[in-house]
Amino acid sequence: MRRFAIGPILMAVALTALTGAQVNAATAAKPAPAASAPAPAGPASAATKKAAPATPVKLVDINSASRKELMTLPGIGTAEADKIIANRPYLTKTELVSKAALPVGPYVSLKHLVIAKPKAPPPKPKP
Q1: d(CA 62, CA 117)
Q2: CB atoms < 10 A from the CB of 8, how many?
Q3: CA–CA separation, 93 vs 63, rounded Å?
Q4: Do 73 and 60 meet the contact criterion of CB atoms below 8 Å apart?
Q5: Per-domain boundaries in the chain
Q6: d(CA 91, CA 98)
Q7: Of the candidates 64, 94, 62, which has an alpha carbon nearest to the alpha carbon of residue 80?
Q8: pLDDT (tens digit per residue) in 23-79
Q9: Other CB atoms within 10 Å distance of the CB of residue 60
Q10: pLDDT at site 123
Q11: What is the C-alpha to C-alpha distance for residues 78 and 69, in angstroms, rounded to an integer?
Q12: CA proximity to 72, closest of 110, 119, 115
């Protein structure tokens, strides 16, 4: 397989054709300037501002969630919620795919929002 080097002028022409933006070939041939010195740290500096803490995401337990709770997940409708409920209990959340309750695509989009808590076994009677 051959590799082709794209020069800065050819790159500018390609970018112009793709984006429709005007690119000056003379400035495209110049190398990018080195990173400038960091901005002075002042009270208005973005680096000194503290970001608000992220709100924790409430995980949905697929073993005990109701149909309504399951339908709040992205990509889960009535049919998917019914499949999830019908295939309970789950040992891990990956069993949503292995038990064919969900296809891989929807599972990937919601795997960070679900958890599979195992049900506690019933207490053994004391003799």
Answers
A1: 8
A2: 15
A3: 9
A4: yes
A5: 60-115
A6: 11
A7: 62
A8: 454 554 555 555 555 555 555 555 556 666 677 778 999 999 999 999 999 999 999
A9: 19
A10: 75
A11: 11
A12: 110
Strand partners, 115: 61
CB 31 within 8 A of CB 7: no
Contact 102, 80 (CB under 8 A): yes
d(CA 81, CA 83) in angstroms, rounded, equals: 5
**Cα 118 from Cα 7, distance rounded (Å):** 59
| Identity at 38, one-letter amino acid code | P
Residue type, 98: S
Measured CA to CA, the distance from residue 20 to residue 15 in angstroms comes to 8
Tokens found for residue 94: 């990956």
CATH T-level fold of 60-115: DNA polymerase; domain 1 (1.10.150)
Which pTM value belongs to this model? 0.53
| Two structure tokens written together for 25 | 């070939």
